[in-house]
Amino acid sequence: MHSPTNNSVISNGINCSNTIYYGVYVPIDAKDYSEGPYVFQDKVEALKLAKRNKKARFKAFQFYHEAAEFAMNGSECPNNNHTITGLFTSKLSETTQTIGEKSSPFKGPKPQELVELRKAIESGNYKFVKETIWQNPRYLVSNGDTPSILQEGPRYNALHVAAKSKNAEIAELILSTISNTEFIKLLYGDDNQQNAEDRTAVLLDLYLNTPNKGLNETPLHFAAKHGAAEVVELLVSYPQCDKSTRNKFHKSAAEIICERADGNNIQAVKNKIQLLLQDSYYVPVLRAEDNSLPPTVGEPFSPTTPPVLNKDPLSPRLEIHAYAGPMDKKEAQEFRRVWKTPPRTLNFNSPSRKPNENVSVTSLRYKDPDKGLERIGKRLAKDYDVSWKEYWSFLGKFS
């Protein structure tokens, strides 16, 4: 039985500490009841168990008895203030009623409303999707704190649908929204920042790595299989994305690239996705938050080993404002070397400049301190045939 550790204080069912309990519900056909209810204080361990069973559900609680009830029955206290775990039954007093997590003020959408959202994602109706999910967060988050299902049967969530539709813009909207603590605070009417951060972490992992029913494929499988290179690039940019997950046929995303792709130039798309699913590296532009330091070209990094930018709390805070990639490690190191000491001249396309007229790189860096380094990097990215992303504050994202 996964019971509270000795350093928590339980008195008459009341949690007298700040401990959070994570209950994992596993359906009866997959559960060993000799182990008791699956209740953890370590969120990572709870997630590991939940991910091993595709039918499992995961939820955090303030009280142990609530987590135990959820772990055994898939719901909290369904029988009039009795905790029924299959191993014990106890009458709860008035002071120990289920008061753990706040319930959301939003009602779950009707099935036809979820179908409408799915069709909007498939058709690329970005404005409708954004307005809908912010008007009612339950379109993305179910009552069980898991991704809402937009298509029964195969059990597609919104990210499955966006990946299958090859729509990177809406896939990015979905991931950035469920990663936004303000969205989670809106969902629960709870201003606690730590609670919101914990929930976003769980939701992000579930959206990225939950397989569908039947083929057991994650959104990454969908994107790779349909040749959606931009979606693949987005998904693997998240360190939480598990590239090793295998589908019903024991194949990873890397083993089914472009199996369902159509259109021209499929081989080029396949090559790009293969590179993305390897250990990819990016070369960033680093700028001080207060602009007290000149911008610099940072060391190559990969999503699995993100850069440590602010080791010294007394130094100006550095942020990534643009990046080029993906590339393999050797290519990224070469790109950085050329970017730091580029040729004295580079050809920049401009309506006011003749095609063969060159611009001094040194001059550009000093004359355009806000975007000069980015302009050089963007031009080099074009020469190296790699993607280029810049952060635009008015959009609140990289584009």
From TrEMBL:
<dbReference type="Pfam" id="PF24567">
    <property type="entry name" value="ANKLE2_3rd"/>
</dbReference>
<dbReference type="GO" id="GO:0051301">
    <property type="term" value="P:cell division"/>
</dbReference>
<comment type="similarity">
    <text>Belongs to the ANKLE2 family.</text>
</comment>
<keyword id="KW-0040">ANK repeat</keyword>
<dbReference type="Pfam" id="PF12796">
    <property type="entry name" value="Ank_2"/>
</dbReference>
<dbReference type="InterPro" id="IPR002110">
    <property type="entry name" value="Ankyrin_rpt"/>
</dbReference>
<keyword id="KW-0131">Cell cycle</keyword>
<protein>
    <recommendedName>
        <fullName>ANKLE2 third alpha/beta domain-containing protein</fullName>
    </recommendedName>
</protein>
<feature type="region of interest" description="Disordered">
    <location>
        <begin position="294"/>
        <end position="313"/>
    </location>
</feature>
<dbReference type="GO" id="GO:0007399">
    <property type="term" value="P:nervous system development"/>
</dbReference>
<dbReference type="GO" id="GO:0051721">
    <property type="term" value="F:protein phosphatase 2A binding"/>
</dbReference>
<dbReference type="GO" id="GO:0031468">
    <property type="term" value="P:nuclear membrane reassembly"/>
</dbReference>
<dbReference type="InterPro" id="IPR056237">
    <property type="entry name" value="ANKLE2_3rd"/>
</dbReference>
<dbReference type="InterPro" id="IPR036770">
    <property type="entry name" value="Ankyrin_rpt-contain_sf"/>
</dbReference>
<keyword id="KW-0132">Cell division</keyword>
<keyword id="KW-0256">Endoplasmic reticulum</keyword>
<feature type="repeat" description="ANK">
    <location>
        <begin position="215"/>
        <end position="237"/>
    </location>
</feature>
<dbReference type="GO" id="GO:0005783">
    <property type="term" value="C:endoplasmic reticulum"/>
</dbReference>
<feature type="domain" description="ANKLE2 third alpha/beta">
    <location>
        <begin position="281"/>
        <end position="391"/>
    </location>
</feature>
